[in-house]
Specification:
seven-stranded mixed β-sheet; 33% helix; 7 strands; alpha+beta; single chain
């Protein structure tokens, strides 16, 4: 049986599945002594009902949510130069994936989808940031480059970017889903 992965706009009906997804990721993070999303679960779930349509889910077979992310046209006011802020870009934030489906690489698929979306929408870049050097390395494995590190309050942020380009994802999504349990 061929299994199908789809990126689609989130809705309020996705709330329970997104809550379950984030709770699973929190458990995974806490078991490893990492800071977790747990204090933000209610906020992240409520964003599924965002009227801007900028919250997306990666869904398996029309029934299981494997990931959730936000893709916006307006980025944070920090970390980017004034010239960079004028360039058309999409900003990918709050990406969370189900740790039970690592073999599918849901984070990578969502990141590649964002690169393709940026190209389709006429943007030059997909930008994102993170707090942890390990996460920055993971994003680099997805083709994002470290633009700079900036201090924000008591945190160091890793500002990342990848040039927008059209990617053929239909086959990648289908191949990723083949043979899954």
């Amino acid at each position: 049986m061929e299994r199908v992965l789809v990126m689609r706009s989130a809705s309020a009906a996705d709330g329970p599945a997104v809550r379950e997804l984030i709770a699973a990721r929190c458990d995974w993070m806490e078991e490893r002594g990492l800071p977790s999303w747990r204090p933000s679960i209610d906020d992240l779930v409520s964003q599924c009902d965002n009227p801007c349509g900028d919250v997306w889910v990666l869904e398996l077979d029309g029934s299981r949510v494997l990931g959730r992310t936000t893709l916006q046209e307006q980025g944070p006011p920090w970390g980017w130069t004034e010239a960079e802020k004028t360039e058309p870009a999409l900003y990918m934030t709050t990406s969370v994936t189900d740790p039970c489906f690592r073999e599918v690489k849901p984070g990578t698929l969502m990141a590649w989808w964002a690169v393709d979306q940026a190209a389709q929408r006429g943007a030059c870049w997909v930008r994102r940031d993170c707090l942890f050097p390990e996460l920055a390395k993971y994003y680099q494995s997805q083709g994002y480059e470290l633009v700079r590190e900036v201090e924000r309050g008591r945190h160091r942020l890793y500002m990342m970017a990848r040039a927008a380009e059209r990617l053929e994802l239909t086959e990648r999504f289908a191949r990723a889903a083949t043979g899954m349990r």
